[in-house]
């Protein structure tokens, strides 16, 4: 813990801002529903698109529901689903990349060509087609978004793994009879963790934007559940009025993605230096 605090203290100002934003949204995702002043689906105000007040800090939405309560609840879905999806994508992509790096040449070619085929399909179109075909339940939506970003993670992880697999210490391990599983998990994987973390952070941002985009189009989470993208979509009629009901979730999405980007940039620059 002390080591993490020291590293955070050495971050540049942009990195500290990014870290603060990321930690803020993690805390909101964890405890948000418990600190919400009203149940997210309750109609608590007779005035729609009401402005900020002492009773409703972020006003009310198009049905008179408390925007702050819905924002605190929606952040859990956006952050939680994106984190789970990026973990699945990174696990599958990195696992396949390690298999390709230490496996026979034909397997590397097979996996690489398969991933090249998938990555040639635009991610948003691919996700839209799958969601439209199979539905948008929590499990299916998370799985579909994760599969969408497996090829990109595979390409980054494979390029790292193939380079490491040719180094002398891996050849020595291979010469002393170590199996492919040992080579992949003990010799190669630990030395590609740091670059992978930067890629995982970027993919988290892409997934947040993809999930929000799907929800905005009505193909994401379905009522009564709502993520930040859903909150923007359902309150578009208040855009002309500049209602907080549409501004607040849009700012939330922007601050989350900008925070992650700032943190990744600062951490990467720090490693380079």
Structure description:
One of its GO terms (biological process) is transmembrane transport. The chain is an all-alpha fold and 273 residues long. The protein has one domain (14-31, 66-272): MetI-like fold (Orthogonal Bundle). It is built from eleven helices and no strands. The chain has helices spanning 2-9, 13-35, 67-102, 105-119, 123-134, 138-165, 168-175, 180-188, 193-216, 228-234, 244-272. Helix 3 packs across helix 9 (193-216) and helix 4 (105-119) packs across helix 6. It is elongated and about 75 Å long. The two termini are 23 Å apart.
CATH superfamily: MetI-like
Largest sheet: none
- What is the CATH-assigned architecture? Orthogonal Bundle
What is the overall number of helices? 11
* Topology pattern, helix = H, strand = E: HHHHHHHHHHH
- Structural class of the helices, strands and pairings? mainly alpha
Count of individual domains? 1
- Outline: elongated
Which percent range fits the helix content?
Answer: over 70%
- CATH class (first level) name: Mainly Alpha
Enter the CATH topology name: MetI-like fold
- Give the termini separation: 23 Å
* Mean residue pLDDT: 88
User: What percent strand?
Assistant: under 5%
What is the CA-atom radius of gyration, in angstroms? Answer: 22 Å
**Tally of strands:** 0
Which runs of at least 5 residues are low in confidence (pLDDT < 50)? Answer: none
Helix/strand layout:
Layout: H1 2-9, H2 13-35, H3 67-102, H4 105-119, H5 123-134, H6 138-165, H7 168-175, H8 180-188, H9 193-216, H10 228-234, H11 244-272
Helix pairs in contact: 2-3, 2-11, 3-4, 3-6, 3-8, 3-9, 3-10, 3-11, 4-6, 5-6, 6-9, 7-8, 9-10, 9-11, 10-11
Domain ABC transmembrane type-1: 75-264
Transmembrane segments: 17-36, 48-68, 80-102, 125-150, 200-222, 242-264
Keywords: Cell membrane, Membrane, Transmembrane, Transmembrane helix, Transport
């Amino acid at each position: 813990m002390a080591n993490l605090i020291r590293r955070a203290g050495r971050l540049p100002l942009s990195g500290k801002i990014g870290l603060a934003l990321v930690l803020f949204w993690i805390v909101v995702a964890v405890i948000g529903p418990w600190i919400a002043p009203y149940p997210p689906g309750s109609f608590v105000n007779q005035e729609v698109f009401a402005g900020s007040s002492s009773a409703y800090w972020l006003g009310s939405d198009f049905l008179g529901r408390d925007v702050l309560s819905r924002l605190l609840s929606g952040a859990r879905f956006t952050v939680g689903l994106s984190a789970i999806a990026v973990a699945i994508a990174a696990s599958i992509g990195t696992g396949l990349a390690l298999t390709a790096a230490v496996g026979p040449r034909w397997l590397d070619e097979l996996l690489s060509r398969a991933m090249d085929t998938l990555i040639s399909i635009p991610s948003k179109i691919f996700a839209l087609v799958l969601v439209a075909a199979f539905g948008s339940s929590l499990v299916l939506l998370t799985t579909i978004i994760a599969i969408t970003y497996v090829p990109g993670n595979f390409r980054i992880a494979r390029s790292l793994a193939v380079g490491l697999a040719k180094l002398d210490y891996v050849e020595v391990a291979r010469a002393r009879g170590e199996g492919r599983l040992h080579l992949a998990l003990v010799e190669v994987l630990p030395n590609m963790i740091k670059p992978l973390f930067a890629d995982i952070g970027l993919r988290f941002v892409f997934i947040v934007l993809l999930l929000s985009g799907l929800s905005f189009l009505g193909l994401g989470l379905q009522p009564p559940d709502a993520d930040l993208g859903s909150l923007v979509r359902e309150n578009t009629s208040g855009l002309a009025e500049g209602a907080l009901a549409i501004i607040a979730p849009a700012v939330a999405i922007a601050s989350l993605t900008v925070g992650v980007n700032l943190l990744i940039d600062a951490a990467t620059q720090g490693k380079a230096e």
